[in-house]
Automatic annotation (TrEMBL):
SUPFAM superfamilies: Metallo-dependent phosphatases
GO molecular function, one term: phosphatase activity
Example GO biological process: RNA decapping
Domain Serine/threonine specific protein phosphatases: 64-69
Organism whose genome encodes this protein: Belliella pelovolcani
Domain of life: Bacteria
Transmembrane stretches, start-end: none
One Gene Ontology cellular component annotation held by this UniProt entry: cytoplasm
Name by which UniProt lists this protein: Serine/threonine protein phosphatase 1
């Protein structure tokens, strides 16, 4: 089967639905590389859809853990020093769960099962990619596959990552590291991108869906890219 890999959704549910229309379940393995939640207006619906898709398609669908799922899990489990999630989209996400009458704890077990990577012989998918600094799978390592923003190293296979939004509207290929960054800033009102690959890593096509305004419009009329944090301060959004 070929691969359909989706970038950072960040609660942009309506945009996510439009991109999912391009998935061919009979011929494509679906991989989403993390950060389903926070920033956009519909994190609970995004999680619910992913959960249901995984239930139905099981082994042909893979949802990876991003740094925002990691922060959410730690907060819901009551781990020490986990309140910073609230200032990174978590406060709004919890309010959305209340609005939609959904229980975030219902999904906690599933969120905990999310792997950090998906790979075959030719393709390696993770949220933030491999920097070569420290243990890549240490969730506290700022240069690990959940948090890295440094240049990627060549891993001997094609890497596909997100995490760091691209300034333009198209996914970017980096020859030195043999990698694609497909985070095109959906929550910033730009695009949500999916990339289709043959199982050997050769490109079939990239698909970019403009962000549906419903997913990012601010009811408080803040400028684009701004939110109010839990302390009542205006802050810029960062991924």
């Amino acid at each position: 089967m070929s691969l359909f890999i989706i970038g950072d959704v960040h609660g942009c549910f309506h945009t996510y639905l439009k991109l999912m229309d391009h998935w061919e379940p009979k011929t494509e393995t679906l991989i989403q590389l993390g950060d389903l939640v926070d920033r956009g207006n519909f994190s609970p619906l995004t999680i619910r859809l992913a959960f249901e898709v995984k239930k139905v398609f099981k082994n042909s669908v893979h949802f990876l853990k991003g740094n925002h799922e990691h922060m959410m899990i730690r907060y819901l489990q009551g781990e020490p020093n986990s309140d910073h999630w609230l200032d990174n989209g978590g406060k709004e996400t919890l309010e959305q769960f209340k609005t939609h009458k959904l229980d975030p704890y219902f999904y906690l077990g599933w969120l905990n099962t999310m792997p950090l990577i998906w790979e075959n012989k030719n393709v390696l998918v993770s949220h933030a990619g491999f920097s070569g600094n420290g243990s890549p799978f240490d969730t506290h390592n700022p240069d690990g596959v959940l948090w890295n923003r440094k240049p990627l190293i060549h891993m001997g296979k094609l890497q596909v990552i997100g995490h760091t939004p691209i300034a333009g509207s198209k996914a970017e290929f980096h020859e030195a590291s043999n990698s694609w960054n497909i985070d095109t800033g959906a929550y910033q009102g730009n695009y949500l991108t999916g990339i289709k690959l043959n199982k050997d890593g050769t490109l079939i096509e990239t698909i970019t869906i403009p962000t549906d305004p419903r997913d990012v419009e601010q009811k408080n009329s803040l400028p684009s890219g701004m939110v109010i944090n839990s302390k009542g301060q205006n802050i810029s959004l960062s991924n």
